[in-house]
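hey so i finaly got around to running the thing on cytochrome-c oxidase from Chryseobacterium gilvum. pasting the sequence first so u can double check i didnt mess up the copy paste, my clipboard has been acting weird all day
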Amino acid sequence: METQKFSYDNSIVRAFLYATVVFGIIGFLFGLTAALMLFYPELPEFLFGTDDTTIQSLRSGNIQGLINTHGAFGFGRIRMLHTTTVIFAFVCNSVFVGVYYSLQRLLKTRMYSDTLSWIHFWTWQIMIIAAYITFFMGINTSKEYAEHEWPIDILIAFSWIIFGANMFLTIAKRRVRHLYVAIWFYIGTWIAVAMLHIFNNLEVPLSFTGWKSYSAYAGVKDAIVQWWYGHNAVAFILTTPVLGLMYYFLPKAADRPVFSYKLSIIHFWSLIFVYIWAGPHHLQYTALPAWAQAVGTGFSIMLIAPSWGGMLNGLLTLRGAWDKVRENPILKFFVVAVTCYGMATFEGPLLATKNINKIGHFTDWVIGHVHLGALGWNGFMAFGVIYYLIPILWRTKIWSVKLANWHFWLGTLGIIFYAVPMYIAGFTQGLMWKQFNPDGTLLWKNWLDTVTAIVPYYKLRFIGGLFYLSGGILMVVNLIATARQGSFQKEVPAEAPALANISNKRKEGEGTHLWLERMPLLLGVLAFFTVSIGSSIEIIPTLSLKKSVPTISAVKPYSPLELEGRDIYIREGCNACHSQMVRPFRDEIVRFNGKNGQYSKAGEFVYDRPFLWGSKRTGPDLQREGGRNPSSWHYKHMYNPRSTSAGSIMPRFPWLIATNLDRSKMVDKLTLMKNVFDVPYTKAEIDTADQWADHQATKIVSDIFSEAADLKTAYAKRPQGELEKKEIIALISYLQRLGTDIKTTEIKTASNN
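ok and heres what it spat out for the C-alpha cells, dont ask me to read them lol
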C-alpha cells in the first residue's frame, strides 16, 4: 500500500505546555498563600491596612484599604482559586499536552483540525481567566471543584465538546488499526467528564443577564450529586487521563514495553466501572441514606484492586531499567508519581471505611491525602512529561540534568513536609474532638484548643510548599534555558501507509478485546455504559423519590434577609472552613448542639440550594449555630475574630460592616424559589419581602445594641437606621437561623464512639 506523508502539529503541544508551566506556578503560589493564611490570618491586613496596632502592616492605622478589597483576598476565595488553578489550569493543561502529543503519534496522523485544536486551547484558557475574575469578585456556587457559575460552566462544556470532537475525528482518520491503551483512558475520560460536568452543574440562573444561579438540586439530593461529581472529578480528571499519560510516556522514557497487556485491559475496565460508585464515601455518617453510604464504602474498598493493578503495571514496566532511574530525572519523577498514586489509592479506601472515616473526616488528614495525590501523582507526572517533551520539541538536550535532579529532590521534600504534618494534624484533630473527661464533659471544650494545637504543623506544611514551589521555579529556569539553546520544530514530517478497509466483524482467532480495540465507536459506547451503571443506580433513586427525603413540618423556608445572608456566606467561601452537618456522634452533639440534642436530619436541608455540608472543619460546625452566640458577638467576630476568640485563625470581614446590602434581586430570588423550585412562599410574603427584611434587620440591630453598649454608643453618632442596611446584618440573620427549626432536649445518637 502506498505510503502517505503528513506532519505532526507541535505548536498546539507547545501552547498547552506553556499554559501548564505558567498556571502551575500560579497554582502553587495560591496554595502557598492559603497555607500561610492558616497560621498568619493577618496577611490581608499586612498587605492592605489595619486598625489593629498590634499587627505590622504596610498601611498601619487605616483599615479602609482592607475594606476596599471587598474580600477579594480572603481565604475562602484564595482556596477556590488554588483548587481551580491546580485542577483545571495545571493538571488539565498538562493532560492536553500529553494527549495532543501522544494521540498524533499513536494514530500516525495529524489532529483532525488545527482550528478545533486552537479553539479548544483558547476557550480553555479564557475559562480559567474568567474563573479568576469571578472568584476574586466572590461570584461562585460553593460546590467543591465546581465553583464556577453557569456561564463558565457552559464555556467548559463547549471547550470539552470541541476537544472531544477533535479527538474522535482524529481517531476516525487514523493510520493504525488498533487503539493503544493510553487512548482507551482518553476516551473513558472524555465520556465520564462530560456526563459528570453536565449533570452536576444543572442550575437555574436568577437572570440570563447576571451571574447568580441556584442548584437544580437541594439538600441531600444536591449532596449526593455533588460528591458523585467531586469524587469522580478526582477519578476522571486527576486519575484516568494521567494514567493514559503514564501508559505512553513511562514506557517511552524507559525504552521498555508495558509490563502486561492483559493487566492493562483489567485495569481500564475495572477502574472506570468501580470508581464511579465510590462518591458517597465522602458523606459517611451524614444525612445521606444509609444504603448509599454502604455502597460507597464497598466500592471504595474494591477500588484498591484496579488502582494497584495500574500502579504495578507502571512500576513493573521498569523491569530491567532500574539502572536508568539513577541517571534519568524523568524516570525519577515517574517512579515517585506512580508510587504516590499507589499510596493515595490505598489510603482513600481506608478513609472510606466507617471506623476510620469518623476520625479522619473533616480533618487535615483528608487534606494530606488529597495533596499526596495532587503533588505526588499529578504534579510529578506533569513534570516528567514536560522534561521528556522539552528536548524533543526544541531538538536539543535538557540544559541542566543537575537542575532537574534538584527539582526532583526539592519536590520530594515538599511532598514529605506537606503530607506528614497534615497526617499528624489530622490524627490530632480527630482524637481531640472526641475526648471526654470522666464526668462526661468534653476534654477540649473550646474549639480553639484543637486549632492552636495543630498550628505548628501548618507551619511545616508551608515549608513543604516552599520546597515544592522552589523546585517548580528551577524547572522554569531549566526549560527557558533549554528552549533558548535549541530550535523549535513546529511541523514534524512523518509517513505511514493508509489504513486498509476491512470488515468490522471479528476475524477467526481474533481476541474479543483486540477486536474491540479496532472499533472505537463500540469501545466508547461500552465505556459510557460502564460508567453509567453505577451513576444511575446511585443517583436516580435519590432524585426521583420524594419520600427519599422525609419532610419535617417545623422546617420552613428562609426569610428574604436570611436568603441574602446565605448568599453572602457562599460568596465569602465560608463553607471552606465550616461544615453544616452534625453527625450522630456523642462528641458532635454535645459540642455543636447546645440545648438541642439532635444530629442533622435529611429533612432540614430541603430548602438548601446548594447544600453547604462542607468537607473541612477549620472552624466549628455551624448547623446548630442559631442562638448559640448573641448577634453582637457575631458582629464583633466578623469585624475582628481575635477580639472574641483569642488565637483564632479566621480572617477579618470588615467590608461586611461597611457595605450596604444589595436588595435589588431579593424579590426575584423569592419568586424563582417559588415558581421553579416550589418553595412555599405566599404571594403576600413575596410582595412584602422588603418590609419583612426591614423588620428582621431592625430586630437584629436592636439585639446588638441591647447586648453591646459600646456598639450602641458608636452608632449613636451615625444616621439612624444605618446599620440595618449593612451586609453584616443579613449574614447574622442567616447564622442565627441555622438549626433553630429543630427543637428538642432529648439527645439521640447512632453511636457513642
